[in-house]
């Protein structure tokens, strides 16, 4: 049951092809002709048979026919019959090669496939290729060469173009999958398969749209944790949002949100067709840089300066040799060589000089990667210089990229680099951009590791009070909260605000101002005015009671003239924030389609749109993510010591972002939010003004029910489910306790230690394998999971040890794991269990199984099943005691199929 559900599609042992007959009554479509020719050109490794839906004799033979995959290249009128036949002969997957099929007809075919238990790729698809299997189940052209890349594209034309480009550039593939509109098998499912495909080392995606952000993010996060993923997305320029009611909504475009989503998923985004393959080639090299400092080794100042300029342009740092490294290297180089910034070897540089410089840079802690640039020089052998790079022992601990400039004189050198699998580029800018993609990938991997819970460790917010406030606004058929209501909502989540009171007359304004103390600010309060300053509805630094009274009158008259239709509640009065050197920032929230709520951070004040400073992150946040969000903004440069001002209280600013994250997670009714300005200085942060837009939410009811799993469906990333953490007594004479909690990405090494410490018998019972430890891809897949579609609970004990200096140290140890993975039917799941041998019989296995059953039931699943080796009596005894039904497994007598109805 470990075999992926799409294995019959992408790794079939037997295929039936419905391609029609050129001489028959239905004729043969162009796709059918192309598919038949593809199989003639390349022999499939498995069994292939052609069937005709219109031939009676063929139908009589169905009882003797069986296949994993059906390929259908017929006229639309014959596709339904072919799908039914495919189901009848036991096909688990089918590909419909067609174009121009509308949504209604595609839906009908999906229903037939679902009824027959067939996973359907298509319609509007060119099909797929699996070069390692010599399988060309496509009409995208000749079979691609074999290689470690997987290509998934939502455009048939781009798929064919990429294959043509790849053939000319020697790029090979493990898989090529073409997806179009209305396909049943979609990108998340394909990504899920490729993440577990041993032949795939990196994945490139051409993307035009996303139907389900949660499923897309789930699959993308899982895939990019296991291997590099590079995405090229079309439609980068969003349409304007003229109806935006807050600053955040006005300045955030969907393309910016997509960037934020890819960062959080640990993937890399590129902007061009060629860059897509360049990035994938570099990432497939499995370099592990820890920074963005790129050293440039060159034999020409001009190319080196071009590289340095581009390093600065795209936000990288020029790697410079440390003083000790310079001192050692300088005597070995030509007299005119310079090491001040660039490693300029001068025009006299020989192959040995390149080798010495690259060795020095590779071993220098101040350098994260090396770019070797060669420009043709009289008397210098370009190929011999390339050979010096090729002879460097592999693997290098840092990325090495090459740029051999020119054309005819460096062709042989480029071949030498290609044979050595050193990424080579024709221009310095392209090479620097490729390193930038490597650096971005591993920076994004840090974000991927973050799985924060919906609520932080700060003081518990008044969630129920906040929900009641929103319900009262929606009950009045309003969507825009007043300033008073917005600030009350912020207060519910302990976000610091200025004290604000509403005045409904000039006299009230004067009395409130006197009580608060001067100076004060007066602002118009209206649900119909998005931006108060647009109607001159803000007055600052009012210094006395008379001024407050007169300002009230003048403001009401002005607003009535400039916005005659607006409803006016009165004027709010608040004490001016006294922060002489405080910085103005803003924190916002906008709802994106399809990614849901997004948190925005940047410079605030009245010129917010003009400054256009925006950094974005998908919730939930933790302190690490909040800090990275701040760092990505331009205003971050002013938050330290700046022009005589003290550094701001960064911890208070991070806490404010965590509070906003809590609001977004717990209140699915939030649509837009604009907290601007927030005054931040060395003493903390305080929100001066806020505007919030809410709307009815289908998730609101679920969110009210005890933080149930379904309560966070409005988020693209499922939060860490901390609510499943429980502490239990440890059975046995020693006593003590252990904790059962959901797995976390940081648990990888502890999980590996658990597997390494198992007896060979226990390891065989769990994995049906003789390996001593989990392979890296499997370890990644087991620890970074999507809590929406799977769950893993670990049993953790605390162990004590004594250091050499006598200090008592405590460390966690995982002693058991239970998990389930939801099946494609979305109603059942498959479970597994393993417990450390020395903890067998202490009740941990039973507790882990009971806990994972509770989680699956909470998720709404109906059935849990699994395979247990028939010679594993202890496990069979446990599942029977828990109420599982035990039956023979028809496909393999060595296993028992155990089932539990939830």
UniProtKB/TrEMBL annotation:
Domain ATP-grasp: 487-523
Residues of the N-acetyltransferase domain: 738-902
Ribosomal protein among keywords: no
PROSITE patterns: ATP_GRASP (PS50975), GNAT (PS51186)
SMART domains the record matches: CoA_binding
UniProt keyword annotation of ATP-binding present: yes
InterPro entries: Acyl-CoA_Synth/Transferase (IPR051538), Acyl_CoA_acyltransferase (IPR016181), ATP-grasp (IPR011761), ATP_grasp_subdomain_1 (IPR013815), CoA-bd (IPR003781), GNAT_dom (IPR000182), Ligase_CoA_dom (IPR043938), NAD(P)-bd_dom_sf (IPR036291)
Record GO terms (molecular function): acetate-CoA ligase (ADP-forming) activity; acyltransferase activity, transferring groups other than amino-acyl groups; ATP binding; metal ion binding
Keywords: ATP-binding, Ligase, Nucleotide-binding, Transferase
Family, similarity comment: In the N-terminal section; belongs to the acetate CoA ligase alpha subunit family.
The name this protein goes by in its record: Acetyltransferase
């Amino acid at each position: 049951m470990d075999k992926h559900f799409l294995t019959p599609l992408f790794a079939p042992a037997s295929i039936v092809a419905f391609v029609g007959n050129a001489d028959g009554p239905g004729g043969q479509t162009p796709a059918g002709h192309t598919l038949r020719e593809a199989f003639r050109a390349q022999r499939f490794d498995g069994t292939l048979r052609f069937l005709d839906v219109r031939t009676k004799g063929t139908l009589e033979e169905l009882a003797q026919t069986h296949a994993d995959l059906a390929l259908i290249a017929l006229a639309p009128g014959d596709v339904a019959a072919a799908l039914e036949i495919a189901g009848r002969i036991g096909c688990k997957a089918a590909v419909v090669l067609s174009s121009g099929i509308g949504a209604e007809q595609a839906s009908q075919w999906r229903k037939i496939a679902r009824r027959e238990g067939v996973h359907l790729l298509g319609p509007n698809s060119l099909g797929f290729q699996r070069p390692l299997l010599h399988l060309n189940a496509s009409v995208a052209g000749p079979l691609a060469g074999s290689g470690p890349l997987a290509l998934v594209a939502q455009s048939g034309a781009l798929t064919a173009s990429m294959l043509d480009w790849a053939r000319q550039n020697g790029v090979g593939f493990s898989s090529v999958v073409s997806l179009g509109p209305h396909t049943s098998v979609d990108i998340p499912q394909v990504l899920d398969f490729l993440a577990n495909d041993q032949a795939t080392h990196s994945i490139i995606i051409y993307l035009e749209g996303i139907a389900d952000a949660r499923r897309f993010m789930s699959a993308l996060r899982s895939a990019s944790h296991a291997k590099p993923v590079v995405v090229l997305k079309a439609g980068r320029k969003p349409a304007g949002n003229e109806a935006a009611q807050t600053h955040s909504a006005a300045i955030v475009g969907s393309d910016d949100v997509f960037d934020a989503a890819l960062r959080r998923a640990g993937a890399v985004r590129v902007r061009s067709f060629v860059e897509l393959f360049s990035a994938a080639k570099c990432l497939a090299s499995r370099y592990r840089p820890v920074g963005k400092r790129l050293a440039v080794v060159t034999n020409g100042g001009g190319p080196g300066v071009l590289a340095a300029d581009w390093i600065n342009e795209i936000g990288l740092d020029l790697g410079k040799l440390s003083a000790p490294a310079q001192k050692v290297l300088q005597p070995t180089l030509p007299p005119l060589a310079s090491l001040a910034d660039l490693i300029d070897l001068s025009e006299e540089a020989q192959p040995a000089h390149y080798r010495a410089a690259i060795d020095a840079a590779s071993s220098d802690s101040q350098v994260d990667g090396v770019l070797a640039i060669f420009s043709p020089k009289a008397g210098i052998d370009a190929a011999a210089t390339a050979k010096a790079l090729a002879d460097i022992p592999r693997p290098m601990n840092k990325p090495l990229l090459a740029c051999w400039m020119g054309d005819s004189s460096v062709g042989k050198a480029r071949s030498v680099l290609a044979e050595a699998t050193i990424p080579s580029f024709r221009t310095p800018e392209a090479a620097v951009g490729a390193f930038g993609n490597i650096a971005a990938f591993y920076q994004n991997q840090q974000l991927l590791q973050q799985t924060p819970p919906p609520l932080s460790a700060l003081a518990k917010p008044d969630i129920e009070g906040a929900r009641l406030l929103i319900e009262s606004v929606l009950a009045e058929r309003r969507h825009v909260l007043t300033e008073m209501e917005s600030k009350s909502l912020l207060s519910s989540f302990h976000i610091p605000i200025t004290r604000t009171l509403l005045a409904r007359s000039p006299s009230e304004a004067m009395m409130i101002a006197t009580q608060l103390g001067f100076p004060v600010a007066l602002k118009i309060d209206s649900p119909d005015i998005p931006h108060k300053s647009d109607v001159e509805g803000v007055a600052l630094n009012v210094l006395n009671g008379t001024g407050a009274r007169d300002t009230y009158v003048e403001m009401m008259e002005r607003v009535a003239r400039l916005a005659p239709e607006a409803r006016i509640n009165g004027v709010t009065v608040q004490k001016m924030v006294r922060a002489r050197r405080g910085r103005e920032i803003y924190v916002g929230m906008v709802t994106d389609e399809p990614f849901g709520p997004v948190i925005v951070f940047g410079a605030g004040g009245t010129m917010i749109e003009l400054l256009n400073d925006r950094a974005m992150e998908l919730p939930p946040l933790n302190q690490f993510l909040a800090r990275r969000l701040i760092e990505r903004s331009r205003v971050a440069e002013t938050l330290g010591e700046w022009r005589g001002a003290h550094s701001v209280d960064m911890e208070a600013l991070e806490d404010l972002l965590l509070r906003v994250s809590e609001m977004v997670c717990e209140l699915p009714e939030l649509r837009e939010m604009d907290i601007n300005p927030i005054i931040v200085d060395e003493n903390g942060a305080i929100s001066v003004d806020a505007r919030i837009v809410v709307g009815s939410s289908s998730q609101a009811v679920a969110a009210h029910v005890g933080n149930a799993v379904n309560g966070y469906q409005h988020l693209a990333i499922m939060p860490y489910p901390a609510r499943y953490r429980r502490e239990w007594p440890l059975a046995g004479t020693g006593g003590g306790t252990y904790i059962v909690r959901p797995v976390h990405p940081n648990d990888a090494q502890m999980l590996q230690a658990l597997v390494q410490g198992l007896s060979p018998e226990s390891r065989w019972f769990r994995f049906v394998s003789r390996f001593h430890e989990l392979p890296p891809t499997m370890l990644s897949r087991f620890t970074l999971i999507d809590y929406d579609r799977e769950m893993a609970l670990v049993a953790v004990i605390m162990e004590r040890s004594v250091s050499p200096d006598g200090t008592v140290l405590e460390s966690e140890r995982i002693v058991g794991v239970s998990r389930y993975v939801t099946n494609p039917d979305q109603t059942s799941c498959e479970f597994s269990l393993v417990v450390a041998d020395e903890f067998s019989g202490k009740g941990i296995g039973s507790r882990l199984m009971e806990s994972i059953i509770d989680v699956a039931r909470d998720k709404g699943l109906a059935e849990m099943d699994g395979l247990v080796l028939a010679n594993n009596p202890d496990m069979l005894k446990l599942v029977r005691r828990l109420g599982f039904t035990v039956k023979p497994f028809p496909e393999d007598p060595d296993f028992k199929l155990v089932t539990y109805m939830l």
